[in-house]
Amino acid sequence: MVVKGLGELERSIMDILWAETNPLTAREVGRLIADRDLAPTTVMTVLDRLTRKGFLKRTRDGRAWRYEPAESRDAYIAELMLEALDLTGDRSAALTRFAQAVSGTEAEILRRALTELEDE
Amino acid sequence: MITAALLAALATACALGAWRFTTARWTSRAPRVAIILWQSLGVAWGLATTGAMLAYAVQPYGAGVLAGLHAFANGETPREPWDLMHVLAMIAGLTALTVLVVVLLTAGVQALRARRRHRLLLALISHDDPGVPGVRVLDHPSAAAYCVPGLRSQVVVSEGTIRLLSQDELHAVLAHEAAHVRERHDLVLLPFAALRRALPWSKVVRDAQDQVELLVEMAADDRARRYCSPRRLATALLRFGTAGAMPTPHGMIGLHARAHTVMARVDRLVKPGPELSRRIRYGSIALSVTLLTATPFLWVIQL
Hints:
Chain A: Pfam families: Penicillinase_R (PF03965). With 120 residues, chain A is α+β, with helices and mostly antiparallel strands. In chain A, 52% of the residues lie in helices and 13% in strands.
């Protein structure tokens, strides 16, 4: 995995930490990144940035910090999907959506319309 | 006194007009004209309601609303002494104006914050798909297609969407989202969402928001159909509607679309209605312009 740019680096580091079951130190993260030319301080900076944004949690381990994701990848995806489908209940105008699913019996009306349109 | 009475009449007319307008049938034939009329009604209603109270309040100065407020802010002594009614009107007017402004600003800030977090997360967990260039893809089996508006808007679809739709339908959905981006529909929706939060018990406000949301979708459908098959856009809509809702952590608290709003969009894509008559089209635009000029005018002059 060749890493480019800070955003790309943040992604790779999150991916590494999501794949691990235990919290890792900056040195361990650095070892798992394919790009060997990366300065250790760069890894530290990115870990720090991600912690400040709230995506990582860190705990003291002797003289080093150990980092782990604040939430699982699936939890974040679920958060985005709930917003995307306007299911958070606050109905803000933060996003514009294509369409939403219709529940239960009402969906039957749409199913019939779909069959008709496909048959024509 | 005349200014205050005129503004009060205008505020009432706007409220009644909005109430009547929620059931108008022509709107789906010209969604953009209807959106402009809704916006003008909203702005005029806000300015007229607060203006009526303030016009009455600054009457002792014998000047217009703006001039009167300016004099009041500078601590000038009015020509006639204050009485209880004028003081109460001043408190009510200033409170209402502040609430409207604060609610709008809060809604704006909240939307910006929600988008910022959404964007940060997208950068970490969405991926590219060579099949849909320029679109972020989320690893989730449910169907979702949406846009995160902003200076650099992002269109996002879920894996579920790519699996659900045919190539042509996906193309149609992306054209629809591109229309939202281009016409900045988020800015149209924002004040109505804000007003809904400020007046959650008002049925007219709720209906207005529902209407504007639907009209914005119709406007995006209209732009999209220039670049894709309207029929494919219609089948994409129906597939989305029947795809099955995503369960939420708190049960089904989400606001689900009603079948009739989806069908309203499908019907006009498949069988476009006749063009809106010129009388209604130009009449609405003239009404919007009048509303948007009359209220600020009444704030400035003294009758």
